[in-house]
Amino acid sequence: MGADAGTGPSAAKGPGDGTRAVRAGLPEPVKHEPTLPGPVFAAHFHLPGDPTGPYTYGRDENPTWTLLERAIGELEAPGGGAETLVFASGMAAISAVLFSQLRTGDAVVLPNDGYQALPLVREQLAAYGIEVRTAPTAGDAQLDVLDGARLLWLETPSNPGLDVCDVRRLADAAHARGALVAVDNTLATPLGQRPLDLGADFSVASGTKQLTGHGDLLLGYVTCLDAERAAAVRRWRKIVGAIPGPMEAWLAHRSLATLQLRVDRQNANALALAEALRGHPDVTGLRYPGLPDDPSYKVAERQMRRFGCVVSFALPSRARADRFLEALRFVDDATSFGGVRSTAERRGRWGGDAVPEGFIRFSAGAEDGEDLVADVLRALDETAD
């Protein structure tokens, strides 16, 4: 865990992460009203006369979104001044930043080891006449192709390889060259990393994963400190209509109250699992940024406050990986990550990721850590060749 975990109160730093998460975005208390109002289901609102006021039409604004956006903003930028916009999914949020900020003739730098859907984004950007450059996350390699770019897109830790780049170093270099910086903060969550504090212009994430933590909704968001850039993202959301449902937004806000509890338990389980897998004869390529001997540890320790719930490693073959996953008792074979129930998958089954056939992406849940580690070690032993 990084030096500033923010888990307790401090006169200088304000409330701790748990207090902030529990109270984030709540409205002022009103007698006889619920602490967190229920979801507002409305396509339109009463609107006599001129269209003034915050709520006019359900594609543009919704009171349930407003509370959630305020809550996420308080977590991503505790100092205030940020604007958050929620979306129907993480990819909707990613697309909103890229397509609202880039124009034909611009250049953008993307990681070549990022989220699996990014190659589809690259194709669409190229079709719009935008130059796409790529480089790995590790070693801040995107610096080498940054000159002349309009936007630098970072994903740190990367998914699924768990490489980490130095956000502040890259942001400073990008800004010196006149480029904007966006960081996919999905794997870290705002309690693990605050990209805006590190110099990024946009913090973008899928709320589908650990932010909401129960594997039961799709959501995305963009947080930005600049009002003009936020307005461009908002305009894109209006044009494409990539809005969350009020029920999803309300469930997401309700889930934030347990974010710190979930994150700390899941991070502890991920670290325990990674330590247990160290030196196992059948495991290769073990990665977890919280391990002191991980290639990403030094950078992660400087900029991350928590290291995430995902551990990656490889087994000798596709068949062995499939047997291992089938033998697990407390772990679901499912895609995505960040849920309170542990999940794992052989990532190569989807194609698109440059990983070995036996590569496992493991998302530690909130089970008892001893049970989880014992289950994994037993499954490895039972499926050994």
Automatic annotation (TrEMBL):
Cofactor (UniProt) = pyridoxal 5'-phosphate
- Matching PROSITE patterns, A to Z? CYS_MET_METAB_PP
Lyase as a keyword of this entry, yes or no, is yes
Annotated EC = 4.4.1.1
Q: Which residues carry this modification: N6-(pyridoxal phosphate)lysine?
A: K209
A GO molecular-function annotation: cystathionine gamma-lyase activity
Q: Which parts of the sequence are annotated with region: Disordered?
A: 1-24
A Pfam family annotated for this UniProt entry: Cys_Met_Meta_PP
Q: Keywords assigned by UniProt?
A: Lyase, Pyridoxal phosphate
GO CC annotations, alphabetized: cytoplasm
Q: What are the recorded Gene Ontology BP terms? A: cysteine biosynthetic process via cystathionine; transsulfuration
Q: Please name the top-level EC class of this enzyme.
A: lyase
Q: Tell me the Gene3D superfamilies matching this sequence.
A: Aspartate Aminotransferase, domain 1, Type I PLP-dependent aspartate aminotransferase-like (Major domain)
- Similarity annotation: Belongs to the trans-sulfuration enzymes family.
NCBIfam families found in the cross-reference section: PRK07582.1 (NF005758)
Q: What is this protein called?
A: Cystathionine gamma-lyase
Tell me what organism the protein belongs to. Answer: Streptomyces spectabilis
